[in-house]
Amino acid sequence: AQSVTQLDSQVPVFEEAPVELRCNYSSSVSVYLFWYVQYPNQGLQLLLKYLSGSTLVKGINGFEAEFNKSQTSFHLRKPSVHISDTAEYFCAVRRSDMRFGAGTRLTVKP
Amino acid sequence: DAGVTQSPTHLIKTRGQQVTLRCSPKSGHDTVSWYQQALGQGPQFIFQYYEEEERQRGNFPDRFSGHQFPNYSSELNVNALLLGDSALYLCASAWGGAGANVLTFGAGSRLTVL
């Protein structure tokens, strides 16, 4: 079985500060990893994905994530956030079906 | 190019009623998955349709059923509604069946059960 744990339910940060949203997964086999963003009253938008290859994955809007197999983590980072990054962020793991974490609400303050 | 479209966007039902939600996949996509997102939680996988058949199913009761049409559009049906069925129902489409990794999500249908 596979599951996803997002370690922080809420992350407040000031504009232009760096941010890290943490995600750990558990799976006995190789999986594919994803980060999605959800803005209010909208569906989920794919930020980035790790399928294979380089463990550092770059996505849209300046986000990146690093796959760490030994620590079973896939943390999302951005060096400088903007007000417009305020949203709910979901980590997901896929082997057969897609399993999502509970989400991290990122709030960027001016 | 239209993405994934879902209808209706909002609806209110009472306990015991039945509801049908609809989804049109992104152009070029042949696989449709449905997710339930309760307030403050992540999406939970309900089932996936490919080639007009249910291919995978999450941990949801038989009250949840679906259908995929020859044009790849899909319906989600929920019978005997419970208060706990209140949620945002998301449809996601992809190309390639069970092996598809890149999902495109619709904006969802928000169901309220009174």
Q: How far is the first residue's CA from the last residue's CA of chain A?
A: 41 Å
Q: Sheet bearing the most strands of chain A, described?
A: 6 strands, mixed
- Provide mean pLDDT of chain B, rounded: 94
> End-to-end span of chain B in angstroms?
37 Å
How do the SSEs of chain A run, as a string of H and E? EEEEEEEEEEEE
Oligomer: heterodimer
Helix percent of chain A reads under 10%
> Which regions of chain B contain 5 or more consecutive residues with pLDDT less than 50?
none
**How many H/I helical runs of chain B?**
0
What is the overall shape of chain A?
A: globular
Please give the share of residues in helix of chain B.
under 10%
Supply Rg of chain B.
13 Å
Q: Tell me about the biggest sheet of chain B?
A: 7 strands, mixed
Model description:
Chain A is mainly beta and 110 residues long. Chain A has strands at residues 3-6, 10-14, 19-21, 23-26, 32-38, 44-50, 56-58, 64-68, 73-78, 87-94, 98-100, 104-109. In chain A, the strands form three sheets. In chain A, strands 2, 5, 6, 10, 11 and 12 form a six-stranded mixed sheet that branches. In chain A, strands 3-9-8-7 form a four-stranded antiparallel sheet, with no helix packed on it. In chain A, a hairpin with a 3-residue loop joins strand 10 and strand 11. Chain A is globular. The model of chain A has no long low-confidence stretch (mean pLDDT 92). Chain B has 114 residues and is mostly beta strands. Chain B has strands at residues 5-7, 10-13, 19-24, 31-37, 44-50, 53-57, 64-68, 74-78, 87-94, 104-105, 109-113. In chain B, the strands form two sheets. In chain B, strands 2, 4, 5, 6, 9, 10 and 11 form a seven-stranded mixed sheet that branches. Chains A and B meet through strand 6, strand 10 and strand 11 of A and strand 5 and strand 10 of B.
